[in-house]
Amino acid sequence: MPEQLIQNGRLVADRWQRLEMSEDADLGALSAAPILLPASLWCARRDQLLARTGEIGVSLAPGFPLESLAEDIGRFSLIAVEFPKFADGRGYSTASLLRQRYGYRGELRAVGDVGRDQMFYLQRVGFNAFLIPEGRDAEDALQGLTDFPDTYQGAADQPLPLFRRRAV
Fold this sequence. Notes:
27% of the residues lie in helices and 20% in strands. The protein is built from five helices and eight strands, in the order ββββαββαβαβαα.
């Protein structure tokens, strides 16, 4: 079973072309299709990529300095945050910073070692898309988004804590 994409609570086809290119790669042959490229490539070749037509998304490796993308955050239709292994929680902080500090409103996608047990919590910090790895059941992962009926504390997906929502 190939990778499957959950976006806004539904299984959908992935329209993005993922590119793994070095910083000195020839960018002249890129099509106008939506492309997802490493954030390091964006930083190295920003001016050339700005001249291109078509949507651009960036993929953030763990520990990538978000400050280097701060002025361009609004240019990206997609930001993918990489989870190299289940126990690596840095992506949660990255998502929270993107949504709350940098005001990112586009598609925020969790990629890599993403499983059902994480889905609800990834959604809480701001992810609205999840690339389910090959060999995992996307239908089961989709159910993970609704594991809990309500939340107590505020987060990216529901800013008001429960006591504020009940007072209204």
